[in-house]
Amino acid sequence: MKTEGTDGLERFTSPGKGRGLRSTKHFKVGDLLLSCPAYAYVLTVSERGGHCEFCFTRKEGLSKCGKCKKAFYCNVDCQKGDWSMHKLECSAMCAYGDNWSPSETVRLTARIIAKQKMQTERSASEKLLLVREFEAHLKELDNEKREMNQTDIAALHYFYSKHLDFPDHAALTVLLAQVNCNGFTIEDEELSHLGSAVFPDVALMNHSCCPNVIVTYKGIIAEVRAVQEICPGEEIFTSYIDLLYPTEDRNDRLRDSYFFTCDCRECATKAKDKEKMKVCKLGTPPEPEAIQVPPSELLEMCELSLDRMGSIFEDTNVYMLHMMYQAMGVCLYLEDWDGAMSYGEKIIKPYSMHYPAYSLNVASMYLKLGRLYLGLEKKSMGIKALKKALAIMEVAHGKDHHYVAEIKQEIELQK
């Protein structure tokens, strides 16, 4: 383990958790622990044309595939680099047209099968853990998840049978379960979904609701950085889920997706639950009226829901915050910039209390607010919000990340 990003780490058996990753040296806040290229990945369909299919670079003027005209690349080198994977889909997209509709999980699984056929030796993504060693948790799957797996297997055969030699049905069932349990969502600086990937060495880390590292992405490379000081011998923990919610809710999500209950310090003490679930002092309970709003009137529905919820919950309550976030998203979609700004201002302080230090959720909200302020000609407020986002991202992403450089440039342009 002498390569960059793996020195100072070792795989070990974590008591009560199975495999894990621990430190063999001291890491300071912001230090890079691990840099792992994706073993296999796919760009989400909605981002085609805005990001390179091969390296995920975001830029204008990308060149499209001359055959399918649906995949876009920085240049000829990127197109050639992606051909071994893109060819699985290129002619099929031409043949199926608008009926080409495999899920992102199916697309990713097809690429893993192709990669395993082409590369039989250990890859640069598997210094510590092989894809074949991923947990599948087949025995824990309920009937609904089993049926979804079988639907995905059918889609694999339907969309990819001309270009892939599949393993047998049992092996496909295991692989899909492994992908569902170990896959990662690649996101941009505002936490918008860019694609899906598997990063084997990153998947070795166990979960904690008090994580000491954070995972960010530089194109198709996952980077793991310390958000707490880490001493030799300490286990490395990341978070598998959104940490905004109270203990029981978090553990429901962990049991449903990852089949375990967390026993970290935060779950044991439930220290933040009281503030996260804060309710108003009620006199007469509100009448239980049903809210009936046409589906198209999304903003009105959010506002009516918030109105009703506000008679029970404080603004710091996580379910109020969840609804405010939805309302902010609708405002952004409707280009109601003042409305989006108003919701963002209500969200940011509770987010800063509920989330751990150096949270990407907090950083992305400061980014959204900063850009809204600048668009609304509130220059000083915009710069202040962008600087707060930057302070978090310099630790979480590293000072040399292109997202950090872009935000610094945004700030510089305001001077």
From TrEMBL:
One GO cellular component, as annotated: nucleus
Lineage top rank: taxon: Eukaryota
Entry-linked InterPro entries: H3K4_H4K5_MeTrfase, SET_dom, SET_dom_sf, SMYD2_SET, TPR-like_helical_dom_sf, Znf_MYND
Subcellular location: Cytoplasm, Cytosol; Nucleus
Keywords from the UniProt entry: Chromatin regulator, Cytoplasm, Metal-binding, Methyltransferase, Nucleus, S-adenosyl-L-methionine, Transcription, Transcription regulation, Transferase, Zinc, Zinc-finger
Coiled-coil segments on the chain, per record: none
Domain named MYND-type: residues: 52-90
EC identifiers of the protein: 2.1.1.354
Location of the SET domain: 7-241
Known catalytic reactions: L-lysyl(4)-[histone H3] + 3 S-adenosyl-L-methionine = N(6),N(6),N(6)-trimethyl-L-lysyl(4)-[histone H3] + 3 S-adenosyl-L-homocysteine + 3 H(+); L-lysyl-[protein] + S-adenosyl-L-methionine = N(6)-methyl-L-lysyl-[protein] + S-adenosyl-L-homocysteine + H(+)
GO MF, one example: histone H3K4 trimethyltransferase activity
One of the GO biological process terms: methylation
Main subcellular localisation: cytoplasm
Functional note: Protein-lysine N-methyltransferase that methylates both histones and non-histone proteins, including p53/TP53 and RB1. Specifically trimethylates histone H3 'Lys-4' (H3K4me3) in vivo. The activity requires interaction with HSP90alpha. Shows even higher methyltransferase activity on p53/TP53. Monomethylates 'Lys-370' of p53/TP53, leading to decreased DNA-binding activity and subsequent transcriptional regulation activity of p53/TP53. Monomethylates RB1 at 'Lys-860'.
This protein's name: [histone H3]-lysine(4) N-trimethyltransferase
Organism, scientific name: Conger conger (Conger eel)
Upper classification of the organism: Eukaryota, Metazoa, Chordata, Craniata, Vertebrata
